[in-house]
Amino acid sequence: AVIDSGADGIHVKERDVWRIPALRDQWMCHTARQQRASKSSFATVPSALVVGTSTHSVDTAVSTWNQFKPDYLFVGTCYITASHPEKTSQDELEGPCLPGCVKRAIWHQFQKENNSCEAAGCD
Predict the structure, then answer these.
(1) Is the pLDDT score of 17 beyond 90?
(2) Alpha helix (H) ranges present in 1-123?
(3) Residue 6 backbone zone (phi > 0: left; psi -120 to 50: alpha; other: beta)
């Protein structure tokens, strides 16, 4: 439904990250159909669907990044909010430091992959 709506992106819940590859495949098929159906050379169809997901721990964030390469990660829950009524105290929150920890962990992973590629002579 999101793809047919013409949306530029979709947010996938953490429990559904396994759907990211299929969503991207569906988007590519949709884009190809739209381009074939367009009679005007001026018609523009976005070439990529922005796909992001939620994550609630450093381990999950790194695993999700490595396996599915989402365009963004929404990291939390950092504060008490109505969107997560089950979390009623600070002790139940992942906390405001989690986004920075996730960023460092993914950056470290990225550097590690690039350094090993450089050492092997890859471009």
Answers:
(1) yes
(2) 2-5, 20-37, 58-68, 98-119
(3) left
